[in-house]
């Protein structure tokens, strides 16, 4: 168990109206100082606080989405794959940029937020961990007006959802849909699908304000391919986008929006009460159950999780009060400590197989021990019906007094004898109840006597008491089998074995003949068929057009990749020159006095440097746009190559089947691997992770967009 305090990162919203006079941020030390001068309207005696100081783990001012993810998300992804659950939550006032931080913009790939970036890195790490089998599932939950909604449910989203704890104290939501995802594209598509079902509305401070708390959870089940397979490590990653606290006077909320604001502020107040209670060491009771939000986040706040909170602030003068409130809450959150541990479960199906193997091994070991102890061949398998019948006869003879003692070989025999005693007793009781009881003499009738000399009651056949036992009683004449059972009993066991062996030999001969005929038929058709030569001939003749198209696309792909490399070198050169110009300007500013800075005076050299800096930034922007267009073209060409390869192999399979009457599987054909090697490009840039991530992101977005259009058309038709 690892004790870790909640990590708090403060992110400022970029704004042109930054309150430089009131807010001072030191990114190196993580300190934020805020000053609000006393108002003269309050009179001469004014005890209003003027200065506030806060220190956090990290302060990010005007930081990009990539920088925020590197600091807040990467560590938790690796922890989750190591078995430790994690939580990333965004907190702040409405309009401060929480949803942009967590989800980002769906229009531009580079502005994607914490959620899609976490999914991309997660699947990259899973592909690299070949020694583990990792199952990924996702869920998306919304808390709107203290009601929970399943954003991934197709129909009714509010059916049977309830927060509960398992026997180990872990929080889970009963009835919540968990979608299994095999690829990054599947997971991002589920994220987009849930995002379209979220509740948003407009007010004065935010045109697309989230009116609910949302929790996107990635569920992981990790099994080792090297060690014991029955051990399953369970972890999860909660990505929480909290609704923003708001003041109705500023937002101008009315009607339904006002009611939503009341529920949001109420739940955030309960969240603050939980944080305050956790920060006090002497508190025995933590009020988690006051709201759905605090109950759901019990593991994340003060529980079994590694948690990072991103406090989003809006550093403008008219938002100072809300900024101070957010920073106070964030500072309290830093006092909360979580105890994170690895959660290990045992897979029952794998355990059953393991125990079956152990039982088999133990039986073999017992058999070896009995042989060494000269106990003969004692069986430990369940009794066969013939052996059960024999034990029934022994039990009957013992009850009739014909046997004074029973030779016991094993505990298995003792159990079987007791079982047969019980069957005999039950059958006797049943005969008495049916008034069909025939008093038994001390001696059983002689089996050697003829059937005509024995008693022949007209009773119906006895009922079977247990699937391992035998029914007692005698059948009617018309219920007798045509074969004499006594004759079957007297047949020696050797004859039974001989008959059985002959039958098995005949079956084997027939199966061998059938298999031999099949093999001969296939061998006749395979003779003189060189699959690789056939594929080469097909590419030069019937498949020449597709083959030529593939080669042209590969040449285009190489050219595009060469262009990207050259453009990247230019981009790096421009960035270096920009940094040099910035350093020159910063040095100029340092050498100026306060009066020159206040008046904004610049000399000719500084003006020239600023002009050059502006031109360099313009060139860099154009260069990056060229790189982006090249990457899009590369993705299109790569997609065309893959489609052409698949089409070529499919047509060859049809041609091969038509010409030789064979499938590629009949001759263990490696053409699928061969065609990949034949058209492969020995260029390390082909495995560009960024391109692959962007492709999965774009495909997922297009899939969800098409699904939305189909739903709209269906509604219009209705």
TrEMBL record:
Keyword vocabulary terms for this entry: ATP-binding, Cell projection, Cilium, Coiled coil, Cytoplasm, Cytoskeleton, Flagellum, Microtubule, Motor protein, Nucleotide-binding, Phosphoprotein
GO function term, MF aspect, one: microtubule binding
Database matches in PROSITE patterns: KINESIN_MOTOR_1 (PS00411), KINESIN_MOTOR_2 (PS50067)
Chief location category: cytoplasm
Domain spans labelled Kinesin motor: 5-336
The keyword rRNA-binding is assigned to this record: no
Coiled-coil region: 540-567, 603-640
Annotated ATP binding sites: 92-99
Entry keyword NADP: no
Pfam families (UniProt xref): KIF9, Kinesin
Subcellular compartments: Cytoplasm, Cytoskeleton, Flagellum axoneme
GO CC annotation, single: microtubule
GO BP term, pick one: microtubule-based movement
PANTHER family, alphabetized: CENTROMERE PROTEIN E, KINESIN HEAVY CHAIN ISOFORM X1
Family affiliation: Belongs to the TRAFAC class myosin-kinesin ATPase superfamily. Kinesin family.
Record note on quaternary structure: Interacts with HYDIN.
Annotated function: Essential for normal male fertility and for progressive motility of spermatozoa.
Name of the protein: Kinesin-like protein
